[in-house]
Amino acid sequence: MKHVFLASLIAGSIALPAYAADYTIMAPAAPGGGWDQTARSLQTAFQQEGVSKNVQVMNVPGAGGTIGLAQFASQQKGKDNALIVGGYVMVGAILTNKSPVTLKDVTPIARLTGEDEAIVVPASSPIKSMADLVAALKKDPGKVSWGGGSAGGVDHIAAGLIAKASGVDPTKINYIAFSGGGEALAAILGSQVTVGISGYGEFESQVKSGTLRLLATSGEKRIPGVDAPTLKEAGVDVAVQNWRMVAAAPGLSAEQKAKVTADVQKLATSKTWQETLKTKGWQDTFLAGPAFEAQLAKDISATEGILKDIGLVK
């Protein structure tokens, strides 16, 4: 942070274009996954739109983002130039890991994106459809290994809901958690797991190249331009969507929170960010202020209920 501090001093002493304080964005996961992609997309948009001239991204992986969250909450208090990416996965991980640090210990700013889950298998897999996957689950749920993100996150929840909707005990699913999207993708492509589950954007290039077979997506509607049924269309009564958010440090004044919110809102409506959403296949679900805080409280409560239902939280 020394260079950020020095840069701030220099910027304050000579006449330069007006930029917001340089931001640092924490992606509480390994490189390659959705949080990392979100953080780096924010970095690009902040800089290209002139919101912040210099933005740094740091990765702190582990335990569904709760390791990074704890570090962020303890080290960034009162700093209005620090952000952390989070979302549905973190909500679940906080509950399953019984994390002493929760989203109440930071300053939630806005929900940024929504993304449907994708269920994929290697192109060489004998599983050709959701019907084949359901049949394999019913025959021996433990033999079907699922590769996805952190335990208790949306990938894990979706796998449990698919099992439950298929008449299989969700507590018996064989779920293998990976700390980063790159690790999970390698395991799926290498047939180290039976099926992969994550946001569609993380599999898109492999699906288009034909190395992965897309069995279904998890939204209420099909993804435009993607030739795959929804889970409901495939006979599995499940609809779930991942969402990602950005939070600021704890201990901000009302003025600091307003400044950060204004910066994020400017970015979210920018041409650069809107183009990023199209490129990544992310849905624009931007929500900020009291409306987001109320929705976040509802999501946390609902997630706790789902995790109890599928045996991940007692």
Helix/strand layout:
Elements: H1 2-13, E1 23-27, H2 34-48, E2 55-59, H3 66-75, E3 82-87, H4 88-96, E4 107-122, H5 130-139, E5 145-148, H6 154-165, E6 174-177, H7 181-189, E7 195-199, H8 200-209, E8 212-217, E9 241-248, H9 254-268, H10 271-280, E10 283-288, H11 289-309
Parallel strand pairs: 1-2, 1-3, 5-6, 5-7
Antiparallel strand pairs: 3-9, 4-7, 4-8, 4-9, 4-10
Helix pairs in contact: 4-11
Summarize the structure in words.
- The structure is a single chain.
- The protein has 11 helices and 10 strands.
- The chain has 314 residues and is α/β, with parallel strands linked by helices.
- Strands 1, 2, 3, 4, 5, 6, 7, 8, 9 and 10 form a 10-stranded mixed beta sheet that branches.
- Helix 4 crosses helix 11.
- It is globular and about 60 Å long.
- It starts with a helix and ends in a 5-residue tail after the last helix.
Number of helices: 11
| Percentage of residues in DSSP E strands | 15-25%
The tally of beta strands, per DSSP, is: 10
Uncertain runs with pLDDT below 50, 5 residues or more?
4-18
Q: For the report, how would you describe the main beta sheet?
A: 10 strands, mixed
Kindly report the average pLDDT value. Answer: 91
Order of helices and strands: HEHEHEHEHEHEHEHEEHHEH
The quaternary structure here is: single chain
Q: How much is the radius of gyration in Å?
A: 20 Å
Distance between the termini: 41 Å
Structural class: alpha/beta
Outline type: globular
